Amino acid sequence: MSVVVRKKKETFKVKIISNTEIAEGVYVLETKKTGNFIPGQVVAVAMQPNDNLRLYSLASAPEASTFRILFDVKPDGELTPVLSKLKPGDCVHVSKPFGRFTDQGGPAWWIATGTGIAPFVSMMEADGFKDKTLLHGARYIRQFYFAEKFQKSMGSQYLRFCTQEAGDGIMQGRLTGFLKETNRVTPELKYYICGNAEMVVEVRDILISKGVPFDQIIAEIYF
Amino acid sequence: MAKDYLFGKTLTELQNVVKETGLSAFTAKQIAQWLYQKKIGSIDEMTNLSKKGREYLTENYEMGIQKPSKVQESVDGTKKYLFPAHRNLYIEAAYIPEDDRKTLCVSSQVGCKMGCLFCMTGKQGFQSQLTAGEIINQIRSIPESDLLSNVVYMGMGDPLDNIEEVLKSLEILTSEWGFAWSPRRINVSTIGLIPAMRRFIEESEAHLAISMHSPFNEERKKLMPVEQVYTIEQVIETLREYDFGRQRRISFEYIMFKGINDSPAHIKGLTKLLNGLRCRINLIKFHPIPDSPMQGCTHETMMWFSEQLNKKGITTTVRRSRGEDIYAACGLLSTKELVKKQSEPEF
Ligand SMILES: Cc1cc2nc3c(=O)[nH]c(=O)nc-3n(C[C@H](O)[C@H](O)[C@H](O)COP(=O)(O)OP(=O)(O)OC[C@H]3O[C@@H](n4cnc5c(N)ncnc54)[C@H](O)[C@@H]3O)c2cc1C
Ligand code: SF4
């Protein structure tokens, strides 16, 4: 077989503006931008152009002057332990934004756990939350990343579910438990789900079992 | 501390093992032959190694061969083997005997991260990667091992999401010191993880099968979340960058869902998308999984669809359904009931 030179996704060396640990092992990394984007899109990140690329949802407003990503450190991972140590002024390689987990318009529920909240931060900051309800699940209260921002802008459209702790305005129990019980799931709404495969698949199954057509469900999996 | 396994090591890795033992360098090849060609069951059987060498290996290594712990046989002769993987997890492999070929469908991961809507494996989420040893152990340890003519990486998981171990397993299967199989007997499937697909194309000679299921972005997105980041158009553009020669095959798997991806518009979409690419399409009957919102097409619809695509110049076949009664068909391998949750869910 004749082999062509491997064309990897192109990345650009950009400076880090800030890198803040917002909860144990969870960081918000701010970098220079590599291009314009639509909320819900991702960038590919690596330390060097030939390293394996990892994808991250952009968690900033499209009009902001910097990119923001939210990541949690996988202790045996290739990239995140290194990313967590970066300081302002250090460099990282970032692709142009891409991906299609974007708002299709109309009333919808946003459903997220863990760092899966990231694309909704961007959507919220782009003022795309008017006809949306956000369901946010976590084990501990400190894991409701960006909760203050969501509370401030979305108010009662922002629902939190915590399995291990009780807190003001936070429902105790699993997000999936709420979905099973509630009569607010309707087939007309769109449902945007973002997080790990296990959560996305479980939520999707519950919605389908409650009569939501599968094509009203839009999922982004952090594989 | 648990001992490392010999089975699943490449020649280079065995050379490193041999270096530690003080055995001569050519011993690595002899060990490889014992492991992969003579298919012995214990280190003691490596009779052309010195006694000291064997003792060292026994002290520090285990063979790493696991027999299947359970088998289920379908009325059509398909067999589903259950294998223990590490951390008390299980995987499955499906043996599919046909007149002219005997195929084993192997798993590459325990569970899967990709969450395809129609897939039973996807429903159990991701538990673990398999090692190269665990992948080829499926081939080595079934009773029909010596009868096998083909291996397809289409069991649990997306093989290209475990690219390092899959490439290692392919090296062992196709090297002259290993199983010495022709790569043309092996077909590796993916939903289109583009960066890993590039590595696979460049570093292996095996056939490639892409799970397509829809030529349209908006529709494929609903069936396969991967489409959000690696679209089928981009997958095909990437394939067009390579010259696969005449021997190496690219195929597209297309599960047919009633009223969803079976229309004339889909035929047009497929024809446009695949225009000029040397490939074939395999149409697959959908076996509805529990609580599935989709249904399979009739055989007649599938035949009509196939005929239309063939008329447009795209070689299309309707894959025979096998092992339906034991859930051994594509996308149906799952050991959900056997998998204990590893941790408290975060949602
Ligand atoms: C579309 C998309 C968007 C994403 N967005 C985000 C986001 O916004 N924020 C975020 O935090 N993450 C996101 N991710 C996940 C992210 O891309 C990385 O996968 C993640 O950050 C881990 O990267 P890593 O290099 O540190 O770990 P990796 O090296 O990828 O390892 C990940 C984990 O797998 C384990 N592992 C690695 N190799 C093996 C092996 N052979 N066998 C068994 N286990 C193994 C490691 O121990 C580790 O725990 C996204 C993924 C996708 C696909
Ligand atoms: S079809 Fe393949 S890639 Fe998709 S969820 Fe199932 S095993 Fe994973």
Identify the CATH architecture of the largest domain in chain B: Alpha-Beta Barrel
Major sheet attributes of chain B: 10 strands, mixed
Mean pLDDT of chain A: 95
CATH superfamily descriptor of the largest domain in chain A: Nucleotide-binding domain of ferredoxin-NADP reductase (FNR) module
What is the typical, i.e. mean, pLDDT of chain B? 92
Spatial order of the strands forming the largest sheet of chain B: 3-4-5-6-9-10-11-12-13-14
Report the radius of gyration of chain B as a whole number of Å. 21 Å
Question: How many helices of chain A does DSSP assign?
Answer: 5
Question: Can you list the strand order of the major beta sheet of chain A?
Answer: 4-3-6-1-2-5
What proportion of the residues of chain B is helical, as a percent range? 25-40%
Strand count, sense and barrel status of the largest sheet of chain A are: 6 strands, antiparallel
Order of helices and strands of chain A: EEEEEHEEHEHEEHEHE
Tally of separate helices of chain B: 11
Low-confidence stretches of chain B: none
Architecture overview:
The complex is a heterodimer of chains A (223) and B (347). In chain A, the strands form two sheets. Chain A has a six-stranded antiparallel beta sheet, with no helix packed on it. With 223 residues, chain A is an alpha/beta fold. Chain A has helices at residues 80-83, 118-125, 147-154, 175-181, 197-209; strands at residues 11-23, 26-32, 42-46, 54-57, 66-72, 91-95, 108-113, 132-138, 158-162, 170-172, 190-195, 217-221. Chain A is built from five helices and twelve strands. In chain A, helix 5 (197-209) links the parallel strand 11 and strand 12. Helix content of chain A is 18%, strand content 33%. Chain A has two domains: 11-95, Elongation Factor Tu (Ef-tu), domain 3 (Beta Barrel), CATH 2.40.30.10; 108-221, 3-Layer(aba) Sandwich (Rossmann fold). With 347 residues, chain B is an alpha/beta fold. Chain B folds into two domains: 4-62, DNA polymerase, domain 1 (Orthogonal Bundle); 70-338, TIM Barrel, CATH 3.20.20. Chain B has helices at 11-21, 27-36, 51-60, 120-123, 132-141, 163-174, 194-203, 217-223, 232-240, 264-274, 299-311, and strands at residues 4-5, 61-62, 70-73, 79-85, 89-97, 102-105, 109-111, 126-129, 150-153, 186-190, 207-211, 250-256, 280-285, 315-318. In chain B, the strands form three sheets. Chain B has a ten-stranded mixed beta sheet, with helices on one face. In chain B, strand 5 (89-97) and strand 6 (102-105) form a beta hairpin. In chain B, helix 1 crosses helix 2 and helix 5 (132-141) packs across helix 6 (163-174). Chain B is elongated and about 70 Å long. The relative contact order of chain B is 0.13. The chains are: A alpha/beta (223), B alpha/beta (347). The interface between A and B is large, with 49 and 37 residues. The structure holds flavin-adenine dinucleotide and iron/sulfur cluster. Iron/sulfur cluster (SF4) binds next to helix 4 of chain B. Iron/sulfur cluster binds next to helix 4 of chain B.
